[in-house]
Amino acid sequence: MSLKKTKQIRTLKGLDRNLIVNFKQIHVDRLIKLKKFSGSFTGVGPGLDKNANPSTGLFENFKDPNSKGSALTIGTRRGMELLLELEEGTLKPNSPYWTKYYVRMDSDTLTLDLTDDTDLLKYLFLREQNIVAEGLDEIELNSRSEFLLYSEEQEALSRVEGRSALKRAYKLADDLDIATKLQILSVYGVNVDATQTNTITNKIDEKLEADPEKFLALAEDDNLIYKSLLSKCLDAGIITAKEGSYYHNEIVLGFDKESTVKVIISKPQLAAVLKAKLSGDMELIQQSLTLNKEVE
After folding, report:
1. What's the Cα-to-Cα distance from 57 to each of 5, 13, 17, 226, rounded to whole Å?
2. Half-sphere exposure of 140 (CA within 13 A, CB side)
3. What's the predicted TM-score (pTM) here?
4. Contact 22, 152 (CB under 8 A)
5. Beta 20-25 vs 251-254: how paired, if at all?
6. Which 3 state secondary structure label does DSSP give 73?
7. Does residue 132 share a domain with residue 28?
8. pLDDT tens figures, 94-149
9. Which of 99, 110, 153, 218 meets the CB 3.0–4.6 Å disulfide criterion with 23?
């Protein structure tokens, strides 16, 4: 998969270091490129984190919620100090070490071999900087990107996984019945008449092509029918959203869509009322209300 800032590297334990990572400038100014012949260079120094300390990309020791006992997992800050044989605390954000730290590029592309301890520190540092995009996909998402950090092997794997997910999504979509397709589309906010089969197929294809993994997660969600019910009720005004909360009449059902879906699942009578109101059948509405008035 592509390198992503959202996936933090908090410890060196289990980290795949058998990677060659490329670091390059995204937009190369022709004048700057000419100046390089006279000994000029470019690179990246530390930005500032939310505490106005240098952004190092390193993490302190932490308690792993999946591990037993009270022992702490060694974070990347201490892990790198041990690898580089530095005194403890040398790589803390407030350390003088970072005042002079700078990843220099003498050519168009800097190659980092993660089996090299010094290159590993550069990698951890660079992936935390706001002006560095991680992976080709992030260039368009990060408007501040001036540099690119990517692994050709991981980018290739990402493309393979993307194609695989798309194939799975198409296969799954072919096996879905019309009712399920309509439920999926309703969660996306798309309402189509059940008789418009070609339109339904076209809309499903559009959604799965845009993000096959999201489509697969939704299509395979055990709570799809309830998520669809919530979406339809919101569109019909049966459930309303006010200041981040979701209401059925004056009763708060939840503070986001996930919690609201859980409430609907836990209260079959409420689900019956909502379905009856969607149908518009007054007899069904009266029957559902009589079944459990307390949901009103």
Report:
1. 10, 16, 16, 41
2. 2
3. 0.54
4. yes
5. unpaired
6. strand
7. yes
8. 999 999 999 998 777 899 999 999 999 999 999 999 899 887 677 766 667 888 88
9. 110
